[in-house]
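Dear Dr. L.,

I hope this message finds you well. Following up on our conversation about the binding site, I have prepared a predicted three-dimensional model of the protein together with calcium ion. For your records, I am including the exact sequence and ligand specification that went into the calculation, followed by the structure tokens. Please feel free to forward this to your student if that is useful.
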Amino acid sequence: MHRTLATLMVVLLGLTPVFATKPLPLLKTGEPFYEFVPGQVLVKFAPTIKTADITAIAAQVDGELSYHSALLDFYRIDLSGTDVEEAISFLRGQDGVLWANFNYIAHAAYTPNDTYYGYQWHYPRINMPQAWDITLGSASVVVAVADMGFYFDHEDWTGVQTVHPYDFVGGDTDPSTTVDDSHGAHVAGTILAATNNSVGVAGVAPLCTFMPIRVLDDEGSGTTQAIADGIAWSGTQGAEVLNLSLGYPVSGPPQDPGPPLSTAVARAYLKNIVGE
Ligand SMILES: [Ca+2]
Ligand SMILES: [Ca+2]
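The resulting structure of the complex is given below.
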């Protein structure tokens, strides 16, 4: 319906659809750099572009606006037929389009699933006992973990202070999961597990405050859409440290996956967020 309306508008305005006449800007060599979600494009428009025009531009690639990031002000367009590369090339050539990019897919960093892998032979190697003599962390320091879901009812989570949870996979404020061996729960436990409580494991900085952000699904995969918003969330909600144990699988040299991920990382850097 959007396409029909847009086509009608273009005809009424006496314009030739740009899709047919404007040369397609070439993608950079090697693009797409990473695995991406089929049928989805992330795009940011100039602030001067009106919503009706944004809808019309989306319709020209046979797409609909399916998501808007309030944090980074980008849209996701879901395509109903147009090839993703073709749509991105087209959008990059439009006036008012600041960038258009693939919705790349990241994966949780590998960790063995042995029961007591997290049982921490490495702590002496990084002089953790000596560091604990100096500090166990402070409630005033907010440590964000953007990862798979978390186990808030775990026996070693008693007393951990949590602020501003968000789930950018489910689009809700509950980033918990019941999936077995969640990578997020492992990472969060390594950082913040209740320590010296005779239960489970010890955390590196157990007195810090925890900001749980779910950006990876129960399979350990996450889109740039979710990850970029998760990074932006940590900055707007006051995190000082952000852990991202995830990456894009690389078959060749790593490439900058571009916006919105690069935008989110740059903003976090400007807010002096320490990355882990
Ligand atoms: Ca949820
Ligand atoms: Ca413990």
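In brief: Confidence is low (pLDDT under 50) at residues 1-20.

With kind regards,
A. P.
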